Structure formats: structure tokens, C-alpha cells
Amino acid sequence: MAEKVTIARPYAEAAFSLALGAGALEAWSQALERLAALVTLDEVRSVLLDPKVDDESKAGLLLDLAGVDQQLPEAVRNFVQMLVKNDRVLLLPEIHALFVARKNDHEGVAVAKVTSAFALDEATRERLRQDLEAHFKKKLQLEITVDPDLIGGVRVQVGDEVIDASVRGKLANLAAALKI
């Protein structure tokens, strides 16, 4: 996995530079997200890996399926063609992830991975986001998942920092304290 990320990094940096220069960070992010999702599909991967299909056809197929031609005609098309030509098109998921991380860093946004014991309504999500932004002193993008095994409460991870306010976490801390 580390090798893929290492190879993908210069491509992600190039895409970021192009997008930043064009003032189109969000549009590039969305296009890369669609492209990354496509290359994970078995049917698309089989065409991209088929040596009988020429590079132009591979790039055309990918761009047509992603619908990118109409939105970012030249820059994204050239980027995808270059990835296909260099046999790096299957790295699009890693390129997208690195691009988003670079974009978030540029915009001062961090991702908060929130795991809740139950589904959160929109008002609770917004209140949680505001509280977490005040705590971490940065703008946060919440990625919320539900894990009933937490019993109650939430677990939040922002970068390397973790706040475990779940019942399961508190019970684990209590069990560890009782063993001492």
C-alpha cells in the first residue's frame, strides 16, 4: 500500500497544482472522486488492464463514464490520458485521497471521523461539528458512521487525536483500572 501512495503522490501534487492554478479545487476533487470510483469497478478495471485496448480508448471510456468531458474538458482529460499512458490510471483512488488531503490542508479543513452508537439527526450533527471545531480550533468535515457496539456516546478521531466518549470506551477504562 505504501508503494502505491508513494507513486501516486507526484500525480496528486500535479493535479492539485493544476486545480489550484485554475481556481477549480472542488471541481477537480469531484472529478477525481468519480474517476477513482470507476477504476474500482471490475468491469472497468478489466478494460483498463486489457493490453488489446489502446490507451486512447481506455482514457475515452473512463472520461465518458465519469462525465468529465463536459465539466473540465482540457485539464482533466489531459491528466487522465497521461495516467493511462504511464500505466498509472489504477492509482486514481490513491491520487484522489492525496488530492483531498492536500486540498483540506490548503483550506484549513480537517476530517473528523465520528463513530456514534446510533444515527445522529442533522441538528445533533451540526451541534457536534460546532463543539468539535471549537475544541480542535479548525474547520472540520465530519465523516459519521454508526456502531451499535459502542452502546452509547461517540468516538471522535481527528488526525492522531482520539476522543472516546463512548460507553464501551468508559467500560474498557474502568476494567483496566480495576485490574491494577
From TrEMBL:
PROSITE patterns: ATPASE_DELTA
Alphabetically ordered keywords of this record: ATP synthesis, Cell membrane, CF(1), Hydrogen ion transport, Ion transport, Membrane, Transport
Domain of life where this protein originates: Bacteria
Bilayer topology annotation: Peripheral membrane protein
Pfam families: OSCP
Protein localization: Cell membrane; Membrane
Record has Transport as a keyword: yes
Protein role: F(1)F(0) ATP synthase produces ATP from ADP in the presence of a proton or sodium gradient. F-type ATPases consist of two structural domains, F(1) containing the extramembraneous catalytic core and F(0) containing the membrane proton channel, linked together by a central stalk and a peripheral stalk. During catalysis, ATP synthesis in the catalytic domain of F(1) is coupled via a rotary mechanism of the central stalk subunits to proton translocation. This protein is part of the stalk that links CF(0) to CF(1). It either transmits conformational changes from CF(0) to CF(1) or is implicated in proton conduction.
Family, per entry: Belongs to the ATPase delta chain family.
PANTHER family assigned to the protein according to its UniProt record, in alphabetical order: ATP SYNTHASE DELTA CHAIN (PTHR11910)
Protein name per UniProt: ATP synthase subunit delta
Provenance organism: Tepidiphilus baoligensis
